[in-house]
Write a structure and sequence with these properties.
Blueprint: H1 3-8, H2 16-31, H3 37-41, H4 44-55, H5 61-77, H6 94-99, H7 105-108, H8 115-128, H9 131-146, H10 152-158, E1 161-162, H11 169-180, E2 210-212, E3 218-220, H12 222-238, E4 243-244, H13 265-272, H14 278-300, E5 306-308, E6 316-318, H15 328-340, H16 346-357
Antiparallel strand pairs: 1-4, 2-3, 5-6
Helix pairs in contact: 11-12
Length: 373
């Protein structure tokens, strides 16, 4: 019996039927942790059953996690020392080091943080530091290889990509390479094939795309490279550095301007109520910003709904507004959905739609902090 199955046998939701149903559902979700609930369930009936289970008043996060917490505590007691290290774990030995910058480590740092503690931290980091990146790559790669990759050849064959900027030519060459090998079954690209890496593969995939063959030669893994290329393509499409023939949102950026813009530039600037002189435009924008900031500064001390805090050198905190009344159309929509799918909330449907379509990618916040669904 696996550790997960052993933990699930101890779940107690107050009813044997609930316990059995919860174990079955958690096993399914545990087998496919990267997919949506409908995909993990495999059918609409099972999906509705999952939502009914989650909606039951006895099925709470605390109750579901209770056996896992208990088993974790038991495992912890079996070891004399356990390091619970996360990305935010910090040891403050900078004060001691700055106080004696020319001192010896064993005399300055070790009294604050013991040598054994540092040894344990280094050992733990070597064992688990890269683990997150490897796990994330594995999940993304398996999800792409087992599902999304089936539609990629057809999709790429149906779309014609172009770029007006030579700087992004490596991505265009990478796309052409992926298209040429899309229908093949080779594990790595041929050794004599030129595979663009700079400007295409970055970050998470840079150290994962290269592997060595039996002869010790470096080769580029085709599946991993495809993921990196598609990520690079996504970024270029968003800013129209690469565009799609016949597309609207992702079409040729030159078509965003009227065809006679150069001839009738003055007419269009007048319609936009913008000056043609760049210096004048900048001056007007600066004056507008100065006026807005002056008004903001004058009213800040009087506005009880706005305050400055110490975070990040003075973040502006706004008091949340009172919730607006629910729109009549939204009420009617919820009522109609409840008739068709009585146990599925509108928010759940929005979440599942986003998991499938990823439409929140096109939603933008005017601030640097973004939290959607």
């Amino acid at each position: 019996m696996s550790a997960r199955a052993a933990e699930l046998t101890r779940i107690d939701l107050g009813d044997q039927r609930l316990n059995r149903r919860a174990r079955q559902m958690l096993e399914k979700l545990g087998d496919k942790p990267t997919v949506s609930i409908p995909s993990a369930c495999g059918g609409w009936g099972e999906t509705r059953g999952a939502y009914r289970l989650f909606d039951h008043p006895e099925v709470t996060a605390e109750a579901v996690l209770a056996p896992h917490v208990a088993c974790t505590e038991e495992r912890l007691r079996a070891h004399p020392r356990v390091l619970c290290i996360q990305d935010t774990t910090e040891l403050d030995y900078t004060t001691a080091a700055l106080a004696q910058p020319d001192g010896v480590v064993c005399e300055v740092v070790f009294p604050v943080v013991s040598e054994q503690t540092l040894h344990d931290l280094v050992k733990e980091w070597k064992a688990t530091g890269p683990t997150y990146r490897v796990t994330l790559r594995t999940i993304i790669r398996n999800s792409y290889r087992g599902h999304y990759r089936r539609m990629v050849p057809t999709l790429l064959a149906a779309l014609e990509f172009h770029s007006n900027n030579e700087r992004h030519q490596p991505v265009m060459e990478a796309l052409d390479l992926v298209k040429r090998f899309a229908t093949t079954k080779v594990h790595t690209f041929p050794a004599d094939e030129t595979v663009p890496l700079d400007g295409v593969v970055r970050g998470l995939w840079r150290d994962a795309v290269i592997e060595k063959d039996a002869a010790g030669r470096e080769r580029v893994n085709r599946v991993t490279y495809e993921i990196a290329v598609l990520e690079a393509l996504r970024e270029r499409l968003r800013c129209k550095e690469i565009w799609v023939v016949g597309a609207n949102r992702y079409g040729n950026p030159d078509d965003d301007l009227p065809t006679d813009f150069e001839v009738n530039r003055e007419v269009y600037y007048q319609a936009l109520q913008l000056p043609m002189d760049a210096e004048r435009f900048i001056t007007e924008v600066q004056a507008e910003m100065d006026e807005a900031l002056t008004t903001f500064d004058a009213g800040l001390k009087k506005n009880r709904f706005v305050r400055l805090n110490d975070k990040g050198g003075g973040w502006i905190t706004l008091t949340p507004l009172d919730a607006q009344p629910e729109l009549p159309n939204l009420t009617a929509l919820k009522a109609e959905l409840n008739v068709t799918w009585p146990m599925t909330s509108l928010l759940d449907m929005v979440k599942e739609a986003d998991l499938r379509l990823n439409f929140t990618e096109v939603l933008r916040s005017p601030t640097s902090y973004l939290a959607l669904l």
